Amino acid sequence: MRRAAADVYVTRLLSHMYMLIEVGSPCSLPLGLIRTHEDQIGVLGVTLQHPPTDVFAEAATEISVTGPMAHKGYARAWRFFAHHRREPRANVEIELAIPDMMGLGAEPMLGLSLARALAWACGLPLGGDGSPARSRPSVRAPSLIE
């Protein structure tokens, strides 16, 4: 028996609704700014294993963000959905978060973890390495050690 295209879409949608995505990220201790050979500014830093950020996300009928730094996670989730022009529909639980105002990149790491988890939970196209597809190529800083 052949399925109609709408049935396949609903099945995919339902399978995404019950998929719980977990994304973890380390903290980052920035050491300073560097200028690349292409005259771009970058941050030179050290990645530390602790304290980490751990985010769980799943598709839902409305948006919900709970856990430490939920107020910032909620704002980041809204920005994510606005950028991708999608209805804000996801349950997000921030299980662990880097303490704020410690200079360890709490907000950027939370934003990156949320974006990756929401992209997977919402079924957005992913790149070949499992990361969300980029709209522009990334710029890589030259190696400081030859």
Entry keywords:
146 residues; alpha+beta; Ribosomal Protein S5, domain 2; four-stranded mixed sheet; globular; disordered N terminus; disordered C terminus
The outline comes out as globular
SS content category: alpha+beta
Strand content: 25-35%
Q: CATH class, please?
A: Alpha Beta
What's the end-to-end separation, in Å? 61 Å
Tell me the total number of β-strands.
4
Low-confidence spans: pLDDT under 50, at least 5 residues? 1-16, 134-146
Number of domains: 1
Strand order of the largest sheet: 1-2-4-3
* CA-based gyration radius: 18 Å
* Total count of helical runs of at least 4 residues: 3
The averaged pLDDT comes out at 78
- Return the CATH architecture: 2-Layer Sandwich
CATH fold node name: Ribosomal Protein S5, domain 2
Q: What's the main sheet like?
A: 4 strands, mixed
Order of helices and strands: HEEEHEH
Helix content: 25-40%
Verbal overview:
- The protein is α+β, with helices and mostly antiparallel strands.
- The chain has a single domain, classed as Ribosomal Protein S5, domain 2.
- Helix content is 29%, strand content 31%.
- The protein contains 3 helices and 4 strands; from the N terminus they run H-E-E-E-H-E-H.
- A hairpin with a 5-residue loop joins strand 1 and strand 2 (41-59).
- The longest helix is centred in the last third of the chain and has 16 residues, at 106-121.
- It is globular and about 45 Å long.
- The model is unreliable at 1-16 and 134-146 (pLDDT under 50).
